[in-house]
Amino acid sequence: MDATLRDPLLGRLLDGRYRIEERIALGGMATVYRGVDVRLERPVAVKVMRAELAGDSSFVERFIREAKTAARLSHDNVVGVYDQGTDGDTVYLAMELVPGRTLREVLRERGPLSPREALDLVEPVLAALGAAHRSGLIHRDIKPENVLIADDGRVKVADFGLARAVSTATTASTGGLVLGTVAYMAPEQIQQGTADTRADVYACGVLLFELLTGRAPRDGTTPVRIMYQHLNEDVVAPSALRPGLAADLDALVLAAAARNPQDRPADAGEMLAALRRVRAGLADAQLDLPAPVRDAVPQARPAGEAVSDGAAVPDGDAAPGGDAAPGGDAAPGGELGEDRAATGGRSAPEGVPDGADSAASPGSEAVTATGHAPDAPTTVVARSASLPVAGGETHHTRPVPTLGTAGAATSGPVVPTAPAGPRSLARNPLTWVLAVLLVGVLAVGGWWFGVARYTTTPAVLGVERAEAERLLDQAGLSVSWAEAYSENVPAGLVIETDPEPGGRVPSGGEVTAVLSLGPERVTVPDVTGRPLEQARQALTDARLVPGTEREEYSDSVPAGSVIGTDPEPGQQVRPDSPVALVVSRGPAPVDVPDVVGEPLLQARQTLEDAGFEVEVAPERVSDTDVLAGAVARQDPSGDGPAPRGSTVTLTVSDGPETVEVPDVVGRSVPEARAALEEAGFSVDVVDLRPFGDGSVQTQSPEAGQRARQGSTVRLFAF
């Protein structure tokens, strides 16, 4: 039966939000699924932690803290972290789903790239790391599997903030082991278990070397051999493996991959600036140097890859059942591969026996790991410096590689073209004596490097700084301090050490201790009166989440602006807490008084008392029903509501309409009456005809005056 059919998470809805649709990758840390955010209706990648990690409360707390830190890192070249949560016993991350493939798949398919292509791929990786380093975040696990190339050509860096959380959990459960991919780990990560921005720079230098040459600079067949090379051998110039590469490219790689951290660029931003200077100084012919035929470049499987049972793949790096990396076929029993010829490796350097390729020296922790192959889990290697370092210390000299007649690098011992035939130890007793002596020397060396020069980190969790310093000083250890917020540990007490209590640390070495700042709280900003979008941004800038929104009427806050928040401004809350917003709808509507027919002054007072502004129209109108000086019209009318504070326009009456009085003097009474009535007047005749001929002698109002239609004109006739 297909394993996916037995996966209980398929079809499940995590936290009522993320529907799990398809398993797309298995790894030593987590299983990655394709899912859907049903709330926002968008595809997501859901990374579900392994049960043994999810059951570790200290891991979960650190994982949540690191995930939040990564989520705050917003950059175009970083795979976004959308959400983190727990659903029962399931601890998960919801992340951006990037359709495409990993850089490892590109290397497997194409081998070495042109310098232009290599720089085009490393530049966005450095840009992403530069943003992280400026924010105080270190990746710790840069490798081709964690560089994604989207279908649209965008380059994205994955798993920010996760390596530290997982490495601590793994250390606690494996007795002093650190997590990482050996081929890309900086020497200080291997020897001291510490990492800063320059460890990421080192990994980028190794990555650029691999893109230019088609192989990693460390060619050991086991993690132990590769760790030895990290500690004791300088990286060769890429041009030693690929003649024709520009000297500036060699210099960039060698500076980034220097064994001494002080010799590297300080952070990714500094390396990015150096990369851009190198690119600007190269001619097109140098940038577009054709990739060599793949058979001309040693196509070893990725350095550090060991053969395993094939049961796991890196977190998010390959789908179940995917192709194995070249040379990475599974072997029964999970034995570590020892065939140097298959990887183009050199013989073991002086001080490392041939058998060191398959086992750690005496006294070291077990090496339970593979390298960085896409179908192998991320490597777990011994934190203790159980690898012999030539001369008793790490040297930082960098010999200049020379080219032999065939163009291959000739620094270091040369691998014979054919293995010498085996000799019988029984025929030479001296060989037995030397072998016994060698075993004794190795046993003593292993005891020293693996046990004797180490001490145990004292338990200082939960104590004050002064007491922690005293205990560490008694153990012969120095301390560097960091600070972090904690919901559980009061301010001023130690919440974490690296290595953890009981972990191994070189005698006289340094322990990093983290002092609690107490619960982290942020202040709810005062966004009252701000437009809604500005208020949302202010909450986001304060590391809060804009919450629910409801509308209310307000006489003092304009519509669309914020009336208040819940919690109220000034309150202290946890980061990422939701803050509800009350948004103004403007003033509440009120009924408009009807003032038509009222004198203007009285009408104005009535409207202003009701909360309205009053405006008088400049033109008056005639109205037969409204006296002059009274309100003839209003807008809005007095038959409905309007927002309080809005304006009501009043139009004043000029009284009834008037017409000019016709001149009827001298006319006969019937003629005069007809003319006046036609003009709209009533007629009143005072007849004095016994004293005259009966014509109109006078009229009132007089001719030419204006009078209201319907009014009476008096005629005097005699």
Automatic annotation (TrEMBL):
Keyword flag Transmembrane helix: yes
Domain Protein kinase residues, every copy: 18-275
Coiled coil location: none
Pfam family, any one: PASTA
Alphabetized InterPro entries for the sequence: Kinase-like_dom_sf, PASTA_dom, Prot_kinase_dom, Ser/Thr_kinase_AS
Disordered: annotated segments: 299-419, 548-575
Transmembrane segments: 430-449
E.C. designation(s): 2.7.11.1
Keywords, ordered alphabetically: ATP-binding, Kinase, Membrane, Nucleotide-binding, Serine/threonine-protein kinase, Transferase, Transmembrane, Transmembrane helix
Domain PASTA: 451-517, 518-585, 586-654, 655-718
GO molecular function annotation: ATP binding; protein serine/threonine kinase activity
Keyword Transferase carried by entry: yes
Catalytic activity from the UniProt record: L-seryl-[protein] + ATP = O-phospho-L-seryl-[protein] + ADP + H(+); L-threonyl-[protein] + ATP = O-phospho-L-threonyl-[protein] + ADP + H(+)
PANTHER family, A to Z: MITOGEN-ACTIVATED PROTEIN KINASE KINASE KINASE 20-RELATED, SERINE_THREONINE-PROTEIN KINASE YBDM-RELATED
Protein name: non-specific serine/threonine protein kinase
